[in-house]
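#dry-run=false #mode=assembly
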Amino acid sequence: MFEISRLSTKQPDFDAELDKLVSWDAHVGEDLEATVAEILHEVRHRGDRAVLDYTRRFDRSEAQGVAELEVSAARLRQALDNLPAEQRDALQEAADRIRRYAEQQKMADWSYTEEDGTLLGQQVTPLDSVGVYVPGGKAAYPSSVLMNVVPARVAGVERVIMVVPAPGGEPNELVLAAAAIAGVDRVFTVGGAQAVGALAYGTETIPAVDKIVGPGNAFVAEAKRRVFGVVGIDMIAGPSEILVICDGQTDPEWIAQDLFSQAEHDEEAQAILVSPDPMFLDQVQSAMESALPEMERSEIIRTALAKRGALINVRDLHEAAEVANRIAPEHLELSVAEPEKLAGYIRHAGAIFMGRHTPEALGDYCAGPNHVLPTSRTARFASPLGVYDFQKRSSLINCSPEGSARLGRIASVLARGEGLTAHARSAELRVEDQEGEQ
Amino acid sequence: MFEISRLSTKQPDFDAELDKLVSWDAHVGEDLEATVAEILHEVRHRGDRAVLDYTRRFDRSEAQGVAELEVSAARLRQALDNLPAEQRDALQEAADRIRRYAEQQKMADWSYTEEDGTLLGQQVTPLDSVGVYVPGGKAAYPSSVLMNVVPARVAGVERVIMVVPAPGGEPNELVLAAAAIAGVDRVFTVGGAQAVGALAYGTETIPAVDKIVGPGNAFVAEAKRRVFGVVGIDMIAGPSEILVICDGQTDPEWIAQDLFSQAEHDEEAQAILVSPDPMFLDQVQSAMESALPEMERSEIIRTALAKRGALINVRDLHEAAEVANRIAPEHLELSVAEPEKLAGYIRHAGAIFMGRHTPEALGDYCAGPNHVLPTSRTARFASPLGVYDFQKRSSLINCSPEGSARLGRIASVLARGEGLTAHARSAELRVEDQEGEQ
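#status=ok
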């Protein structure tokens, strides 16, 4: 037996129950805030010394200096060379596909010229340097290395620095191999808020970067929130979620595994199935019941489903899309006959997996789109990680003398309306210049 | 007499002096952090009641309910109708030009189909709702209303809510008129951290939004940082800055006013001139000297120039571009003979004003590009506010059965490498299905 919530949009308290189900409080508590503030302060002012102290304390490292925490390029190469061919090929193919998709996202310069010769546009440039945080320990995922590093490389970022904690030992071999394939420039086995601080402020050994991306625990998330502004950050990631909408015509066993694939991440992960067919919900529940004992991570799955999982009965697929829009899920699977049609009703989702043959797992590894996606309803305003996160735009304005005189008259009126007379004078000088010409 | 730093790239301590000059510590102190945390907590849990209490206390309002703080559409219209025709026309023309430029930024869906029929792409959708914070009091700028609201409207955002504090009275008429022109849906005269909290969490009267944009004081900035994740935010704005690069051939009086137009914003604003011609630096200094007493905001300008202004001598324009890239200025004016050529060397800047006839003031009001720009060196990783800030992307993946089988084999290897066997099973079920077909 296993536990999972059953809901129906027909029940009068559905909205409240749904809110309860998907709510996720990211609040971290004042103690953690204070600890992170102190770590960042120490790293900022004591540099290497502080990074080393924390790494020795938290990760049981015996290093005598931060330089010892750097992983050499040769070591990365060695990790790659030592992988079984099957894994090496799979990583390489995944990287190639992620790269091909990312190439499509590259932003380009644009401009237009007005009748009087005034040019307006935007110039696009890559960030100079990026830091990628990779979690260590159990959740050390080589796929995350590819997903964070490849788009940065495609954007043209010159320096990519990776940090990965290696508590009490060596980092994961697959993670090092992925770093070699993705083309990371330097790797340090440092983690936690101290790693974020080092990348934000720079130390004697670890160079400061312009943006920090990659998931981490509550300390890492809080540290990223605090250094935002000094550097860019990607997003504050919450637990992973999947919402599957099924018309009832997909093999229940497939759907059961699709839900498990999310639930197995951790106890807070969320897996929800929505269907207009209540019999199908029963069938999937039975399929989960049968398959659960055989799953290697059955205890995590069981806990996650009991805490945050749900089977939701809706009136029709249109209502299913409405539920999806309210949840704004990280992953949305449309396991239906006409997924293109249904996708047209979806306003908020990190990634949309369309059709019965597109399980989320393909997107997690190798389909091409990024697996770094907005969680905890942030798909209402945020996008998947992409090349565009590693590029930025500069506005271009090049006024012809005539254009400047024309715009200057408008600017002068508005600037004087705001009481900013130097703004007005600066514009008027160009107006007067052109009036002198006539 | 007025004070301004003189620097030269030839001096041995130039790098250190430049760092000192441009450094800006956004750190707000623990007291302010605690105050903002409390205000947000109160607004989240007591809703309207808390918003009303704070507004009565901080803004000396005598309102008896939050509904009284709403400004009606008729009142906005009235403000617009009552404006002198010259101001109304200028606002309207500015809005039109901002809209025309913003239209160019609209992101569109894209996709490609692989040989086996697998479709990959991204779907673009607007945010549902946006909150725009407009500062009150002296710095109530109608141009900011246009710059924040128009791109949201172009993106297709359905609900735009504006908040603007009105300490001890009515909001600025020009601000209300700009709200009418830009097409704001609802306006509340609420400000500070309580306004940010209301927009993030929603109250009985003020609806929650998906993203909050717009500048504010330290309380507003800290509140935005804290609600980031619950809602999207634009950026944490620091003081405004301009860097002018001039070859020495522009009228020194023009450059003096361009620098003043930045310095007059507030005492922390930064105005820097870089030129390879030391004589020109002297001429601009003299021009500033002569013009300063006549400026209406001369005391603010004087303080800003003394605290953070500088005249920097460089070896050549190439070195000037290097200085600009280190500073990553919000506004960069290229007052040179060949601005297109020089712009090609610029990697980091919020907006680039090219040529002698393109003073920053035109961009502040009506050229078209947004005046909400990355400050405090954040142009290293951030972009001007744009339509793209009010749209988001969802990845699209639609695998053909053959594509699913091919990708499933790769995903299975990688998932098992990461110990995520439900991921592997979910992929393998589709592989097996296709193997059964053959």
